[in-house]
């Protein structure tokens, strides 16, 4: 709806969606991107990994923003601590079809 209200064409909608999907894959990747000005403007994998970190149940969830770290800075949920362990605690299937079955549970 915001894109329609801004008057963006259908082609522009497609570019925005492509950027959002590419960003989602990027922040969930296991790439090691060195810190720089870009990591203050755009979320890097290490930023988002802190959101999925494993640890104590009482550990505060941080880094909610999927694309812009400054949003977390604005709301006080920003964490610069790098996570060494992140992801799921239980083992997940290697097979695509078994993963689909797991998602149904």
Strand and helix map with partners:
Elements: H1 2-5, H2 10-27, H3 38-41, H4 45-49, H5 69-75, H6 96-104
Describe the fold and architecture:
The protein is mostly helical. The protein is built from six helices and no strands. It has helices at 2-5, 10-27, 38-41, 45-49, 69-75, 96-104. The longest helix is centred in the N-terminal third of the chain and has 18 residues, at 10-27. It starts with a helix and ends with a helix. The mean pLDDT is 83.
State the gist of this model.
This protein is mainly alpha-helical and 105 residues long.
List keywords for this structure.
single chain, mainly alpha, 6 helices, 105 residues
- Beta-strand share of residues: under 5%
Principal-axis shape equals: globular
Radius of gyration, in Å, reads 17 Å
The helix tally amounts to 6
- The average pLDDT value, as a whole number, equals 83
Quaternary organisation of the protein chains = single chain
* Largest sheet properties: none
Low-confidence stretches: none
Tally the beta strands.
Answer: 0
Q: Bin the helical content.
A: 40-55%
Q: What is the distance, rounded to the nearest whole angstrom, between the alpha carbons of the first and last residues?
A: 33 Å
Computed structural class: mainly alpha
User: Helix-strand pattern, N to C?
Assistant: HHHHHH
């Amino acid at each position: 709806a915001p894109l329609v209200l801004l008057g963006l064409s259908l082609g522009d909608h497609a570019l925005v969606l492509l950027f959002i999907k590419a960003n989602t894959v990027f922040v969930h990747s296991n790439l090691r991107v060195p810190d720089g000005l870009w990591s203050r403007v755009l979320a890097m994998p290490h930023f988002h990994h802190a959101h999925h970190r494993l640890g104590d149940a009482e550990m505060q969830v941080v880094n909610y923003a999927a694309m812009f770290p400054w949003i977390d800075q604005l709301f006080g949920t920003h964490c610069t601590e790098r996570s060494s362990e992140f992801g799921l605690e239980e083992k997940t299937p290697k097979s695509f079809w078994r993963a689909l079955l797991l998602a149904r549970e």
